[in-house]
Amino acid sequence: MNKVLLVDDDAELGGMLREYLQQENFDAVHVQDGEQGVKEALSGRYALVVLDVMMPRLGGLEVLRRIRAQSQLPVIMLTAKGDDLDRVLGLELGADDYVPKPCTPRELVARVRAVLRRAQGAGADAPQRIDAGPLVVWPQRRSATWHDVALSLTSTEYNLLEVLARNAGQPVSKADLSQQALGRPLARFDRSIDVHMSSIRQKLSQQGADAGLIQTVRGIGYQLLRT
Questions:
Q1: pLDDT of the chain along its 227 residues, tens only?
Q2: Burial class (CB in 10 A: 0-12, 13-18, 19+), 81
Q3: pTM value?
Q4: What are phi and psi of 114, to 5 degrees?
Q5: Of these four, 58, 65, 123, 196, which has the most CB atoms within 10 Å of its CB?
Q6: 3-119 — its CATH code?
Q7: Domain limits, the chain
């Protein structure tokens, strides 16, 4: 059973989401405090965190920052509907996905399943490695290296990079990236893929990769160049 941590100061909403997750065969734990949320998230007992942005004292973005300083545990943010700033900031800090509030329990469970499915790795029939020049992607390990140096990627960043590596030299549409890497259809005005790509480019650049390794293909999506 996958164990999910809910961090939300709203006792009623958190309790409802916890009960729904349990009905869907998840082992869900709800905490209402950001400090406790960080402690629980870093305990190693959870497969995924659902984290509310708006919390008193220690807000969700700071909780996410502290988690990402020590762990790549998948995190889904709960953001206020229409609050693009918090959404983008959360993605830039390493959130794997977001769900706008108010949300239905069914939508949240669908997002949790999609993120977990991709975070838990490829099947036995996956290739051992995908070579794209100095970039090597290891599907069964869910890791990637640049000139043999490991890249520190979140679960969603890895998913996106793997899709690009599988299609190196060819453009991949945002719709395909969203479906294959995020596990959901591309929503109108959704900037999450762009923010994740910016983070991937930055991490590759820190290892010496050319800034143009991942190209934006206007009107289509992105392309990983063959080198």
A1: 589 999 999 999 999 999 999 999 999 999 999 999 999 999 999 999 999 999 988 999 999 999 999 999 999 999 987 778 888 999 999 999 999 988 889 999 999 999 999 888 655 566 789 999 999 999 988 999 999 999 999 999 999 999 999 999 999 999 999 999 999 999 888 899 999 999 999 999 999 999 899 999 999 999 999 87
A2: exposed
A3: 0.88
A4: -65, -45
A5: 196
A6: 3.40.50.2300
A7: 3-119, 130-224
